[in-house]
């Protein structure tokens, strides 16, 4: 075990380096030759597939269908929604030509100047514009509403400073885009979906989140309201893990989408959009993992149980295999993924360390002595604890253990979050604790963009959200002393 | 029923128009504002999801893992593999800039000339180049082999003439990319995957295919051998539904990927790639559908069974609903998808026609008389036959019926293919029958690219493949009279 652990920089020593080492050493992803774009490797993609499967199930349970819209968006579309253009049309990949040709000077291929597009296309940074251009044809009457669509896709934003999973130029995500006849219905939808995200974060990722509204200056470009889930990472920084936007009638207006109401009047359509991305993998890593490697919640772990044989000679291996097969059969019957690692190219100690690095929740080991005594060693990744148990009934025990691990890492993250959430009433104390302790801060704020900008400039902390579950409390803005009626959540963030 | 059928142009009248009408009227896809790109609508995407799920399962069963590589590929990569550049670097979308800015003259946004990329990127038309650039770092020794990866992704080829699903500028696909230590292993892999495609086509799409090798001039750019599955559409044209390529050491050589062998020598890596795309949806439509709409194989139908109530008053509806719920419960327990259509906005006749258009394999209808007699009307989409049966045991009957439909549409397509496959020995007869009858032609060919090109120029027919299961047969090339040892498959193709 120890020999692998040293491959990772420790969290204490350098958190950013620990994160990057872990993503690479655990085989999740790596940087590519394309600026700011990553390669998602098999183990990382398997994790994304688990995330997708569960979210997709939840989207379908809430009545949504999947669709696919074009990757490219005509440049002019970005000018149609005034605030959207400011937020999205700037740093993006622009397609200007549609052909290469052999370089006349013999240096490979060159862009054919004859093949210039009349109007340039932008690789989608998000798809509101092209979707609303299309919805115009789908919506004539109230009978065509609501439209509840979602798309799993790649998007591109030409980010200057990138980090694997957390911020990449290209990333994978889902974007929901819904159209409604009334404001109430759209508000309700935006609310429903942020709650789906919160449930997914807490029950599946084992990651507690604060649900709330973004302040006006942190809203999505084009939204009237942005709801967010904010999670605390182990280094005390916040991470925005998902957002859901009430877009009002902004995109309907920009793309002239109206419908004949039940009463026969012509009305503009209301809309929402909501998304989560491969960034969730970064959140998952930073919420739970340790210096030995990944700690994955059993519900999302690509492999939940591994069985490692410790044997001498082929005879011993075959006797262990027979028992392992019986255990795996029992586990698979109840939907637990399990694998028997009989590779003879690696020693058991190396395997143990490797499965710890990869965050496999439960490791079973069986040796000669276990064969004699009908026992098996059970190791849990979250606490690193091991115990030797009888083989009889082991599958049932493991199923319970997986639930316990899921629960335990959620509780551990919750305790950390509670310990790292501080109520502060003085700006000086805020600044001091932000450096000394970090974490979430619940503070009074006067509600102005000026104060928010000042705090951001002076401390790099931002308002993560105005929590939904905040209790009304009279107070004074920690910066200006002006009256405030509830605390908001400040933090430095990824 | 008849009132809906008229929405479709008949196949006889205009096959191409029938196809396009059907794709649009059944809600599968539509053209978008982006040149040659389509919007895949909910029903079309649900079909794609069914296709993906099954193929993905088959890929995993054969040991493959999913990964994700960048959308963009540096332009220079296309010059690295000599024949690949000819095939792919030409008609493609080129990213030259990474920023838009507000137009100084106030006309929306414009491309920022300051933000020109040093090296342009191409939106992937296929990913061999960037993947092999990456594999170079993944492969040092024989222990790192084989690599068995697959990617589900969007790709772009700037096609001039596009048709929904069949040929679009952007399409969704999967591309498998494998690396091997030996030629034998790579050849075996290419073979394994074309057989996976053939099995999928026959067992799931209910579409018989001819498996074979492409002639040299029809090979994938960069391949030493291309295997293909060729299906016959109802208008007598062939459709290439999937390909698997043995790439030899071409990409390893181009990207300098070598490994230390077990014997300690340095060797170049062998590779394959293989893919199918949203084109399969086009194939599925053209293989089975009729003038009433889609005919979908039950194993891929997004909805397998619909129950339509025919009632007067709310009382009747509720009594039918109770029985329908019981039937749906039974169906769902055995994995059959079923829905009760209780919409009061549409009449039963409209619903019948709509479900026929959408190709739902089995429709159950229940009216007042059925309530009295404990019966239900069972309609099968493939033959349009209906019968009235007792409600007792209906779920079991439907399960059997779905299997029967799956089998029947496969047999129907097989019979058509057999009837439309002609052995011809004279070039004149070939030309005549190609126009009069169409379909597949098994002919002797002298094996030269010249003859192949001549036939293509004169008749627009191409060699679809050299069938794997062809029996040795001495003969003479129908064009040149030169000796030939087996027949090859000619057809006009999509």
Can you put this structure into words, describing what you see?
The structure is a homodimer of 494-residue chains. Chain A is α+β, with helices and mostly antiparallel strands and 494 residues long. Chain A has 14 helices and 27 strands. Chain A has 3 domains: 2-68 and 133-288, Bira Bifunctional Protein, Domain 2 (BirA Bifunctional Protein, domain 2); 305-408, Anticodon-binding domain (Rossmann fold, 3-Layer(aba) Sandwich); 421-491, 2-Layer Sandwich (Translation Initiation Factor IF3). In chain A, the strands form 7 sheets. In chain A, strands 3-9-10-16-13-12-11-24-27-23-22 form an 11-stranded mixed β-sheet, with helices on both faces. A 5-stranded mixed β-sheet of chain A has the order 18-17-19-20-21, sandwiched between helices. Chains A and B meet through strand 2, helix 3, strand 3, strand 4 and strand 5 of A and strand 2, helix 3, strand 3, strand 4 and strand 5 of B.
